[in-house]
Amino acid sequence: MKRSIKTILTSVLLLSISSLVFSDAVIEDPLERKVLDIASKLRCTVCQNQPVAESNSGLAKDMRAVIKEKLQQGKKEKEIIQFFVDRYGDYVLLAPPKKGSGLPIWLLPPIFLLGALLFAIVVMKSGREKKITTLEPLSEKDQERIRYARKAMDESGEDK
Amino acid sequence: MQGFWDNYLIELGHLATFMAFVVTVFQAAAPWLATRLQAPAVARSGVMASYIVLILMTIGGATLIHAFVISDFSVKYVASHSNIDLPLLYKVTALWGGHEGSLFLWAWILAAFTTLLAVQGKRLFPLRLSVMMSVQACLLLGFLGLILFLSNPFERLLPAAIAGQDLNPLLQDPGMAFHPPMLYFGYVGFSIPFAFAMTAMLTRWETTLWIGLIRRWTLFAWAMLTIGIMLGGWWAYYELGWGGYWAWDPVENASFMPWLLGTALVHSITVQENRRMLQTWNLFLAISTFSLSLLGTFLVRSGVLSSVHAFAVDPGRGVYILLFMVTVLVIAFGLFLAKGRVDSEREAITSFASREMLFVFNNVLFSVLCLSVLVATLYPLALDAVGEKITIGVPYFNSVMIPLFFLVILLMGIAPATPWRKVNLERLWARLWLPTVLAVVAAIAIFSWDSQAHWFAVVGTGLVTFVLLAMLIDFVRNARRRAKQQNENMMTAWLQLVRRNRRYYGGMFVHFGILIIAIGMIGSGLFRSEQVVLMAKGDVIELGGEKLRFDGVKQFKKDNYFSLQGQFALLGTDIVIQPERRKYPVQEAPTTESGIDSTWARDVYVVIGEVVNGRYSVHAYVNPLVQWIWAGGFIITFGIGWSLSQRLRNKRASAVVAGKQGSVA
Amino acid sequence: MTRHIWWIILPALVLLVGLLAYGLTSNPKHIPSPLIGKAFPTLHGKDLNGNPVTLGLVDNKPTIVNVWASWCAACRSEHNVLLRGARRYGDSISLVAINYKDELPNARRWLSRLGDPYQWSFHDLSGRAGLELGVYGVPETFFINKQGIIVEKISAPLTDKMFADGVALMYK
Questions:
Q1: Which residues of C touch B298 (CB under 8 A)?
Q2: Parallel, antiparallel, or unpaired: how do β-strands B529-535 and C52-55 relate?
Q3: Minimal CB count within 10 Å: which of A37, B103, B219, B237?
Q4: Which chain B residues are closer than 8 Å to C32 by Cβ?
């Protein structure tokens, strides 16, 4: 009985969600989109940490104009980005290149993840079980002291 | 007489702050003095000292605020950050409009929290309280030293300036006005777990005995940081005009790192409260989280990293903060390496398929996230030392951080269904198979709706669906169980469940808030439309399913600025979107105010720029679901409040201190 | 074994602190140019009087190309350096300029008031020429040797010493 309820629920939900398949996706000017797309990968070199797509500085506007021109000339994204890198260096790329001096920064996060996982697993496995401490038998000296103390108490006649 | 007071009141504040410095020196030295002089009463006076320091610093702060309110331009700080025409609210919030004042605020909050700690400690841990006071005092000394000798808000400008230089227009804004104090509550809040950790290492205090006590402090600090970061993002969104809210900028990262570790700490504390594990790790986390608060303070004020948040930079201040931070780090971590093992026993993991292991993975992920942000923020600086320049910007951070966050969200769905110690995998699957299936369906639906969508959107939607459903199923299961046990109907069961398990359901609310934020980020980050065009009056543009018609501009004067306001009619509605370009004559810095029309479905966001050949440069965006992000922030805040409202049962608290049981605070 | 892994904190701290201390002393704005060692691109355009000119090696002599604008305050401070340099090295080098994103009347007025050390100034109203050269701010100066290779690019106002050093590099 429970199983068939689950099946019915699943089918209903599947049907309702699949209706979304028939709704229209959003359309906009593809050239502008491409310009902003490429511009969002380049850094505005006169700004503090802003992509060319977002900056209002003169240089950023010029760069966007150049990108648009080159796209209209039929240049590919890779060529356009390389154009700027040739003139401004790797600094103009918002994400460091995956080779040379940029390589370490791409490798480090996965290394951190693996390292941390390993560390966690090894450490968690190695916890000690709680020891049940057995009482050691009293030494001779201690037993002597106890006998003496008991004697002293009996002799003094005090209440225990 | 009035004039006399107005002129010299600020000096009273200066004197009070200096006296606070002196008393703090005593507070820091109290335990050591007590041992030297063989007089335990001296140690206890550290508590009284904290009250006095707070009173003195309140006097100092009050005189500063007073100076702002009466526009006393003989005070250099007031002259640099205020103006006669400034609205009253901003005259007060201008207190933290610059370095000197915001450092003073930091110090005041530290003094206030120390006093609260003293009140709590007198009842719960009187024997170690003096050491804790000393730790806090040392921290406060660092800040007071900076304030009094390098960055003094009480400095006079004689003869007084005739007019003030006005508050930075970007800060004349409700969001920005409260962003710094919230952040500072968070940063300073993490000093409390730090103080506990330091005291534990200095006095051999088993973590089990106090870990429950810092849970609420940690939650509170985390909540404040969350609110502060959210306010910053919200402000950046509607104020800065680029339609976004987070740029992985070094200053933003500086606040994000303690947030990440703070999240890890909140979860690892829970593990230690349920199992005898992660004691050393908690110690390490408590120290590291606060260290990141200090690092954040350094990064932001020293000018070491280039950032959009251009704070005024002073290398002298930078050197001081660096030295102070190094001292704290060396002492704290040195102590940790030498004496970090304050606990005797540690349990081994029963099974890797257990809730504690999932929490461990949570900590692994958040630690890796934090470390990655730290390294990425500092890497350009490191390369600079070898003579190379690269940029690590948004595309990098998105590629690295988002997949890790996806893993975090996945854990969020699995953990509530997983019991402590060991889970029966069949039972777990029985609870999670339906969310999994529907998650896949949702992912496929998004993909078929927009096949150009980035894979982040597809996977993200699937994960969010998974967790939402998993949480719902968990809630229903628990309610059903309670309804059966307590003989209640489902409605009552639900209500009572949430009311009586505030800690747990507060946490669930917070997780829910995170999911809402995730939905908002997927929508606004991955499905955004934008256009940059030149528009003449009457032009219409179309984007993201909306049409905008430019109807010219209006010009007017208000308060302390002049405005040029664009009129954009949103076709199909009565709404007119009105972005502005403002000029503040005193500061001469023009600012743009974005025009935004918000609904739960999307924001239409318009920025008006300069005139080119008689046409206005217009940058327009449609951001779907962006308001969900701020809504999520509210849900998180409510969730924390709910969790913290769990009533403490006093008898149990004392039992914790006496070591009779693990904490339940 | 796992206990000892905590000691990784030590070198990490040292690295962090060292890096931050270094950071306090460095200037985060200077960008090294990838164009050094490459040939100066040939760019055609007009000078301030409308005559056609070509940027690159001029008169087959090592050439200095200075980027300036009338709206640039820092350009003023280096202007006398350029005047002196033009006089001292006049015959052995060519000195031309790019007038970057400037209106003609403003540019002409600036030169007539302060003196014109250049053989001519390429008028780059749109900034495209600057973009071709990786210019990101004003003033900047390129030093081109006899083979047409850029031997140095300075992204700051020139001093007499920089001028002299640049000339030496051009003749190496």
A1: 20
A2: unpaired
A3: A37
A4: 387-389
Tokens of B415: 């953990």
Q: Scanning the structure block, which residue is given the tokens 């400095």?
A: B155
Q: How many CB pairs under 8 A join A and B?
A: 152
What is the arithmetic mean of pLDDT over B327-333?
94
Token readout for A102 is 């940029």
Q: Does B310 touch chain A (CB under 8 A)?
A: yes
Question: Residue B145 has which token pair?
Answer: 């030293």
Cα–Cα nearest to B550, from B534, B532, B531, B573: B534
Identify the DSSP state of B72: -
Task: Kindly tell me the burial class for residue C14, based on how many C-beta atoms sit within 10 Å of its own C-beta (0-12, 13-18, 19 or more).
Answer: exposed
Length of chain B: 665
Count CB neighbours of B44 within 10 A.
Answer: 18
The CATH fold assigned to A27-109 is Helicase, Ruva Protein; domain 3 (1.10.8)
User: Which of C5, C32, C134 has the CB atom closest to A87's CB atom?
Assistant: C134
The DSSP line for C63-109 is: EEEEEE-TT-HHHHHHHHHHHHHHHHHTTTSEEEEEEES--HHHHHH
pTM: 0.86
User: Within an 8 Å CB–CB cutoff, is residue B550 touching chain A?
Assistant: no
Give yes or no for residue B376 having a pLDDT over 90.
yes
For the record, the structure tokens of B122 come out as 């007198």
Which letter does DSSP use for residue B451 in this model? Answer: T
Residue in chain A lying closest to C32 (CA) = A89
For chain C, the distance separating the N- and C-terminal CA atoms, rounded to the nearest angstrom, is: 59
Q: What are the extents of the domains in chain B?
A: 1-169, 173-421, 529-624
Contact between B309 and A50 (Cβ < 8 Å): no
Phi, psi angles (nearest 5°) of residue B591: -130, 155
State the chains in contact with B (3 or more Cβ–Cβ pairs under 8 Å).
A, C
Note whether B177 and B86 are within 8 A (CB): no
Which residues in chain A are contacts of C134 at CB distance < 8 A? 86-89
Q: What is the rounded distance in angstroms from the CA atom of residue B432 to the CA atom of residue B394?
A: 34
Q: How far apart are CA B516 and CA B631, in angstroms?
A: 7
Residue B657: CB partners within 8 Å, gap ≥ 6?
B124, B125, B209
| Contact assessment for residue B79 and residue B101, using Cβ atoms and an 8 Å cutoff | no
Closest in A28, A64, A125 to B529, CB measured = A28
Q: Nearest Cα to B335, choosing from B135, B522, B155?
A: B135
Domain ranges for chain A: 27-109
Is the pLDDT confidence value at B604 over 90? Answer: yes
Distance CA B548, CA B572 (A): 9
CATH architecture of the domain with residue range C34-171:
3-Layer(aba) Sandwich (3.40)
Q: Which amino acid, one-letter code, is at C52?
A: P
Domains of chain C, by residue range, sit at 34-171
Answer for the pair B166, B587: CB distance below 8 angstroms, yes or no. Answer: yes
Token readout for B599 is 């609904």
- How confident is the model over B551-577, as pLDDT tens digits? 989 999 987 788 999 999 998 888 999
Q: Which amino acid is at B223?
A: A
Whether C168 has its CB under 8 Å from any CB of chain B: the answer is no
pLDDT tens for residues A121-153?
888 887 655 555 556 677 787 787 777 767 766
C75 and C69 in contact (C-beta within 8 Å)?
A: yes
3-state helix, strand, coil in chain C (%, to 5): 40, 25, 35
Interchain contact, A129 vs B348, CB within 8 Å? yes
Alpha carbon separation from A20 to B233, B360, B456, B624 (Å, rounded): 32, 38, 19, 17
